Amino acid sequence: MNIRISPLAAARLKVLLHWEEDGENLAVRLVPLTSGCGTPSFALELTEVRPDDHVIWVEGVPFTCPESDQAWLNGIEMDWNRETGRFSIHHPHPPFDGNCCLPGQNPG
């Protein structure tokens, strides 16, 4: 699984994990959400690592996901926007299943 993260986003995530950590094994979980054909979106959670989760470290930040989400997370690009105070999560080539039911959409 390949996740790219800016140094600024990595620093912000490390701060958030430090604030939340109280002896727990916490990691960042990116959750793929449905938002229509051709427009993936993601939720970001700070969560405990589950026994069957896959864990990778990127820029000193632990990321975790179930095996079933690895294809969705491979290629993710993350950054932190100082002006908005939000993370941006972008997937340049999301793995669509080809079953888009909206007219005129060509996912893939």
Automatic annotation (TrEMBL):
Q: Which InterPro entries match?
A: ATAP_core_dom, HesB-like_dom_sf
Annotated coiled-coil positions are: none
Tell me the ranges covered by the Core domain, including all copies.
1-100
Name a Pfam family for this protein.
Fe-S_biosyn
Q: What is this protein called in UniProt?
A: Fe-S cluster assembly iron-binding protein IscA
